[in-house]
Amino acid sequence: GEDVEQSLFLSVREGDSSVINCTYTDSSSTYLYWYKQEPGAGLQLLTYIFSNMDMKQDQRLTVLLNKKDKHLSLRIADTQTGDSAIYFCAGKQNAGNMLTFGGGTRLMVKP
Amino acid sequence: DTAVSQTPKYLVTQMGNDKSIKCEQNLGHDTMYWYKQDSKKFLKIMFSYNNKELIINETVPNRFSPKSPDKAHLNLHINSLELGDSAVYFCASSPRLAGDGSDTQYFGPGTRLTVL
After folding, report:
1. How close is the nearest chain A Cα to the Cα of B102, in Å?
2. Record: contact A104-B41, CB cut-off 8 A
3. Centroid of chain to Cα A101
4. Cα–chain-centroid distance for residue B48?
């Protein structure tokens, strides 16, 4: 099955860029997702990328996919204190539309 | 209007009890899911239902029995609760089972279950 790994923790200063990294093992993952979870809340979809794309930009968010290295990253430009949350990457295999999540990266933004 | 809703938000109960968590989505989606998030924040799929039919059961003990009375609802019933069942349970839905990235999963707010 798929394994998805993320670093546990990232701390940045307000206004800096944040880069959250994720690696996955299953090259057949067709779509890769980033979700945000604020304290005590559910998961909010931020963005997703199809496996034949290298990059996707959506306002302050940039997703980079290196399919050869099975590496996915999420860049948040001009990080704000409201961006403090846990960020999960997830890969999807077509069979059963199942998502496999990484362990989450806790982003702390200091004023 | 809440897209994916779950009740209750918090559930505290004794070991050995039977409890249910309800999930409803008003998005008109065909597929619904249950995930378990443990204390270390690891999220793992438990079940997937498509048009009221079970598609995935990821080695979940048979004490857990999902029920889908219609495609807008997927309830989770747990018998003989154990300490290890304490977690946050998330319901999710997606437009359909297989296809392209537009089958994005939308999550409910979660139900925090504590077994004493």
Report:
1. 9
2. yes
3. 10
4. 9
